[in-house]
Design brief:
By secondary structure, the chain is an alpha+beta fold. The protein has one domain: Immunoglobulin-like, CATH 2.60.40.10. It is 35% helix and 35% strand. The protein has three helices and nine strands, in the order ααββββαβββββ. The strands form two sheets. A five-stranded mixed sheet has the order 2-9-8-4-6. It has a four-stranded antiparallel sheet with strand order 1-3-7-5, with helices on one face. The longest helix is centred in the first third of the chain and has 48 residues.
């Protein structure tokens, strides 16, 4: 009986240590998966930043340099299916005499349905505002230079169908720089 009790203790100790090893292995796999996802998101963000298509880049160059606009948002209407993304290109030209830090701000102006009825009160404005990803930390631009900043719109699968009208403002030194720009996202 004593021998049986000793064998049961050893068997329990071995089972406990095996369970501990399994938990450690699973934890390491989850950690590695998490690290992989973080690198994938960081790499994806860099890819999006450089993913402005040639047509948008050319149009921004024409508006900023050719026409001398301070802020430009060409190709400002897009049909985006729910669950999909779209990139708008915002151009900013520093026409001041010194290097400036420019800040982008965004707000949802209005939402209309297919019959053009105002349905803004049917959507959560704070959630919709989070659909648009952009550099909100400030962008330094040398005098006479311009940048092309991507505005990534990520439509959730449960979004209300309609036309979402966003207003983008650029500011520097506490004052609005250039004209406010609008872009239209038709959620289909």
């Amino acid at each position: 009986m004593q021998l049986l009790h000793i064998l049961m203790k050893k068997k329990g100790a071995i089972a406990l240590s095996m369970d501990f090893l399994v938990v450690i292995i699973i934890s390491l796999v989850i950690l590695a998966g998490g690290i992989t996802l973080v690198y994938k998101f960081i790499g994806g963000a860099e890819e999006i930043k450089s993913d402005l298509d040639k047509k948008t880049t050319d149009e921004l160059e024409r508006l900023l340099v050719g026409q001398g606009q301070k802020v430009a948002l060409p190709l400002h209407v897009a049909d985006v299916p729910r669950g999909d993304t779209h990139i708008f290109g915002l151009g900013i030209m520093n026409m001041k005499e010194s290097t400036e830090t420019f800040f982008i701000s965004l707000e949802l102006s209005k939402v209309v349905d297919a019959a053009e009825a105002d349905i803004t009160n049917q959507v959560d404005k704070s959630k919709v505002k989070n659909w648009v990803l952009f550099d909100g930390k400030g962008i330094m631009i040398e005098p006479g230079n311009s940048i092309k900043e991507p505005l990534l719109v990520n439509i959730p699968k449960d979004a209300v169908k309609g036309q979402y009208i966003f207003s983008v403002k650029v500011s520097t030194s506490g004052e609005v720089y250039g004209n406010a720009q609008k872009f239209f996202v038709n959620v289909i």
